[in-house]
């Protein structure tokens, strides 16, 4: 349940179109719905502006199907992250509105209307093609939350001219998500070139001394460039969420 759906229920009750019992029936799963194995937070979109997101890792395909089936009865956009093929096979028949993206490992129902003006946008900047699963998780997260998203991919510091050739679109964004593995230098470079907030995402891409993304994480945390904020390793969802909030609030 989001703000618009709650307002509609209250307006219909006030106008007499809904009896008290009918309004209460509409609100029966507010603020949460108990599925036994999950307690769905139907109040979250009203509290935070973004609906609850399903983290599929560790959940059985049947559990993911049951959660999505209940969420489909509500009006909000739907996002499930870290979805494996088995999760999608279990859920794909629930609704033609659900879509699966194997690169980002997401299952989504996109919003009916954008939440932000089309002239403002979030840009996802990825260092290399190997970073695309994390970059696309960030991009789809921001899109599902109603943002226009631009993508600038494969512009890492090994060929800095590639980034310099796309700076106009990067500078035009309200929020920037910078995704990089290896030595994690891309957010620091961007921090010296732009005047917008940067959400840096270290990825686990790299050879042995990258320590599964720890080298990139530490490099981003120790960046001397101002305006760089860092999320956890491979956390494209967290970065997309943060960038969406920045874009929404302006």
In brief:
This protein is an alpha/beta fold and 250 residues long. The protein is 38% helix and 17% strand.
Percentage of residues in helical conformation: 25-40%
Which class best fits the helix and strand makeup?
Answer: alpha/beta
Tally of helical runs: 11
| CATH domain class of the largest domain | Alpha Beta
Unreliable runs, pLDDT <50, ≥5 residues? none
Number of DSSP E strands: 11
- Radius of gyration, CA atoms, in whole angstroms: 20 Å
- The CATH topology of the largest domain corresponds to Rossmann fold
- Which CATH architecture of the largest domain? 3-Layer(aba) Sandwich
Strand order, biggest sheet?
8-7-9-10-11
Strand residue content: 15-25%
Label the overall shape: globular
Q: How far apart are the first and last residues' alpha carbons, in Å?
A: 24 Å
Order of helices and strands: HHEEHEHEHEEEHEHHEHEHEH
Query: How many strands, which pairing sense, and closed or not: the largest β-sheet?
Result: 5 strands, parallel
Structural summary, described in words:
The protein has 250 residues and is an alpha/beta fold. The chain folds into two domains: 107 residues, no CATH class; 128 residues, Rossmann fold, CATH 3.40.50. The strands form three sheets. A five-stranded parallel beta sheet has the order 8-7-9-10-11. A four-stranded mixed beta sheet has the order 3-4-6-5, with helices on both faces. A two-stranded antiparallel sheet has the order 1-2. The chain is globular, with a radius of gyration of 20 Å.
């Amino acid at each position: 349940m989001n703000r618009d759906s709650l307002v509609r229920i209250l307006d219909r009750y006030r106008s007499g179109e809904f009896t008290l019992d009918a309004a209460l029936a509409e609100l029966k799963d507010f603020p949460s719905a108990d599925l036994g194995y999950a307690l769905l937070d139907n109040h979250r979109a009203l509290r935070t502006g973004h609906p609850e997101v399903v983290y599929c890792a560790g959940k059985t395909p049947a559990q993911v199907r049951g959660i999505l089936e209940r969420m489909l009865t509500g009006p909000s956009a739907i996002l499930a992250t870290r979805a494996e093929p088995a999760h999608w096979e279990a859920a794909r028949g629930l609704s033609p509105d659900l879509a699966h993206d194997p690169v980002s490992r997401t299952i989504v129902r996109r919003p009916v209307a954008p939440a932000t003006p089309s002239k403002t946008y979030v840009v996802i900047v990825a260092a290399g093609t190997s970073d695309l699963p994390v970059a696309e998780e960030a991009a789809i997260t921001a899109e599902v939350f109603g943002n226009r998203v631009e993508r600038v991919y494969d512009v890492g510091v090994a060929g800095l001219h590639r980034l310099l050739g796309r700076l106009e679109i990067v500078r035009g964004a309200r929020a920037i998500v910078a995704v990089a593995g290896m030595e994690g230098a891309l957010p620091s470079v961007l921090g010296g070139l732009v005047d917008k907030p940067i959400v840096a995402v270290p990825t686990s891409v790299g050879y042995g001394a990258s320590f599964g993304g720890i080298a990139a994480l530490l490099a981003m945390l120790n960046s001397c460039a101002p305006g760089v904020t860092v999320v956890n390793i491979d956390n494209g969802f967290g970065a997309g969420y943060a960038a969406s909030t920045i874009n929404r609030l302006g």
